[in-house]
Amino acid sequence: MIYDPVLNDAPISQGDIFTSLPRVEVSLKKVFVVDADLSPYEMTWADAAESRTGASQMVRAILPLYPVDAIVITQSCDAVRADNVSLCEIVSVDKMLTDSQTWSTKTWARVLSKQDTENLRWFYLPPGGAAGFRERMAVDFRTVIHLPTEELEAFKQLRKGRLNKVAYEHFREKLAQFFRRYPYNPWYPLDKNEFMEYQNTQHEAVKPYEWQQ
Question: What is the pTM of this model?
Fold first, then answer.
């Protein structure tokens, strides 16, 4: 499989896979702030921030935490010396491909072999191996978690393994592609007639530019 086991004393590196890390969910509309009397008070984040006497004073609040699997995206050299490590959440691949439950092996082979060109927002992780996944999983590049390096080092027993050399090189490049991608409408250089032909091939309506009308 595409995973390697990792010794407990090995430093944290890009491509390391962790299990049961805390993901915090924050609402700007509803925050339960804990004041000096230890009682929670519901308010908006704007009100909670304004209630602090100093701009850098901490807001004590009750927040929901979800245990999630995650993979290190911080570069290995920075993971050693930086104050914080960044990780991306790992989710079931069904969340990325909602109709995949009924796919045949042939369809999976086609989709997974084209994930670089058609699915920049996620990276595929197969089940089994050192990572111990029970189902097909995916790295969701859109969900980033930040944790203190020192504390993550202290809980390295939560590390399942890491990507092997082949998978890591692919992961590194796809991660870079995701964060440097330039979003644009591919039909913008078409003339009016070309745009009409393009529009006929799309499942959803696309809006023409003024020079295409």
Answer: 0.84
> Six-digit token pair at 67?
């245990």
Q: Which of 89, 91, 105 is nearest to 135 (CA)?
A: 91
Nearest to 25 by CA among 70, 80, 63, 67: 63
Instruction: Specify the DSSP element, H or E, that contains 153.
Output: helix 149-154
List the one residue out of 162, 93, 156 whose CA is nearest residue 130: 162
| Structure token digits, residue 36 | 């000096």
| Region label for 175, one of left (φ > 0), alpha (ψ between -120 and 50) or beta (otherwise) | alpha
Domain match, 85 and 166 both: yes
- Domain membership of residue 57 (yes or no) is no
Average model confidence (pLDDT) across the chain: 90
What single-letter amino acid sits at 99? D
**How many domains does the structure of the chain reveal?**
2
93 and 198 share one domain? no
Where in the sequence is the domain holding 16, given as residue range(s)? 3-25+64-182
Please check whether residue 34 lies inside any domain of the structure. Answer: no
Residues 191 and 178 in one domain: no
Q: What pLDDT shows up at residue 140?
A: 96
* 140-164 residue pLDDT tens: 999 999 999 999 999 999 999 999 9
Could you tell me if 175 and 122 are in contact, meaning their C-beta atoms sit under 8 angstroms apart?
A: no
Scan for tokens 């809006």, then name that residue.
207
In a domain? residue 55: no
